[in-house]
Amino acid sequence: MIPPWKVVLLAWLSCAFTVAGAAAAGSDEYIAGYAAATLEHEFHLSGAVIEVDQGAVTVQVRRLGAEDPAKIVRALEQIPGVVRADVQAGKVSVASSGSTAARAVTPQAESKFLPRGLLLDPFHADLRWPHFGAAYHSLSSGNEFASAFGESFAFYRNAAPFDGQWELGMQAGVFGVFDTEKRSIDLINADYMVGLLASYRADKLSGFFRVRHQSSHLGDEFLLNNAQVSRINLSYEEIDFKVSYDLTTWLRVYGGVGTIVRKDPNTLGRETSQGGVEFKSPWLFFGGKVRPVAYADFQANARMNWNVAQSIMGGLQFENARIGDRKLQVLAEYFSGPRPDGQLFTQKVEWLGMGVHLWF
After folding, report:
1. How far is 95 from 343, CA to CA, in rounded Å?
2. What are the boundaries of each domain within the chain?
3. What are the pLDDT digits (tens) for 91-130?
4. CA distance 179 to 221
5. 76 — phi, psi (to 5°)?
6. For residue range 125-175, what is the model confidence (pLDDT) as tens digits?
7. Cβ neighbourhood burial of 130 (10 Å; 0-12, 13-18, 19+)
8. Taking a C-beta distance cutoff of 8 angstroms, is the pair 166, 198 a contact?
9. β-strand partners of 113
10. What DSSP string describes 313-356?
11. pLDDT, tens digit, for every residue of 303-346?
12. For 149, which of 37, 216, 264, 360 is 20 to 30 Å away at the CA?
């Protein structure tokens, strides 16, 4: 039998350690360390300076990239003992010698092989940006189903001039359109795209230089049922350069030009151009899981005789309540202009649609 004095001693020690642990968990030093780990592992923010004064957290970071400051604040406010949080981008100052605030710093980014994510955000309304998606289009001539299977990923990332980062990556995708008016849902056209791109990002400015190949093929059933259609062996390589700038955390513009360096048929025009604007609502709903979004993409190219193809999308984005690198979008779509579907680029169409898009 355990002596009573030992039972009392054990109980007293247990209470003492519990109280001490609770006090440590709410201390400024504990909060600073917890916040640094959160910023490094969940948001991949390097060189961020965290200061905590009586539970008030201030984060200074040179650049946020594509991260949403509202999500960072929400994550920090969930740390035990935090009374409020603030994120400041664009400057990092050294604490004064008389400061009593607890302080922590996340490690500086190092060169990375196969890094997570991309420096450049996707052009969401670009119908040939590789991702996984499906959409239903209603045209005056009938209804169609469009599919997209592809992805973009980086091989290598490292530091770059002007306090930026650069990376080398790859894109690949298959884009198909199907005739839902036919009982067998015939394939109309399929576009195959693969490309290498070098990207750069410094704070709000990002961009890429890309070399890509695209080839297009008509479906067998479509050719059998449309004898009047002349098949074109459409295939080309394009070099393009695009720049993107985040005007705010919720508004972005982009644009650029390109040229085709090898083409079949030889009658294709070479010059290409593209521009767009994207709105990402700063307001989140349903516990930070739903966000309204709207996108517009405009392209005018020599092979389209400089007729403008406009792609406009808007709807809801479903995302992780803490970080936003996994997204599912349900978007209403409008398109007008030359068809984006490979061998049918000489046709002008207009459609309304609804699509589901996955971004990883």
Report:
1. 61
2. 4-105, 112-359
3. 666 555 456 788 888 887 666 888 878 888 999 999 999 9
4. 10
5. -70, -35
6. 999 999 999 999 999 888 999 999 999 999 999 988 887 889 999 999 999
7. buried
8. yes
9. 156
10. EEEEEEE-SS--SSEEEEEEEEEEEE--SGGGTTSEEEEEEEEE
11. 989 999 999 999 999 998 777 678 999 999 999 999 999 888 88
12. 264
How is residue 216 written in tokens? 């297009």
Residue found by looking up tokens 């609502």 in the block = 281
Give the single-character DSSP code of 267. T
Helix (H, G, I), strand (E, B) or coil at 69: helix
pLDDT at 225: 77
The answer to whether 175 touches 144, Cβ cutoff 8 Å, is no
Angstrom distance (rounded) from CA 23 to CA 27: 6
Report how far residue 21's alpha carbon sits from residue 17's, in angstroms, rounded to the nearest whole number.
Answer: 6
Of the chain, the end-to-end C-alpha distance in Å amounts to 61
β-strand 102-105 against 164-179: which pairing, if any? unpaired
Confidence of residue 22 (pLDDT cuts 50, 70, 90): very low
Residue with tokens 């015939």: 186
The CATH H-level (homologous superfamily) assignment of domain 112-359 is: Phospholipase A1 (2.40.230.10)
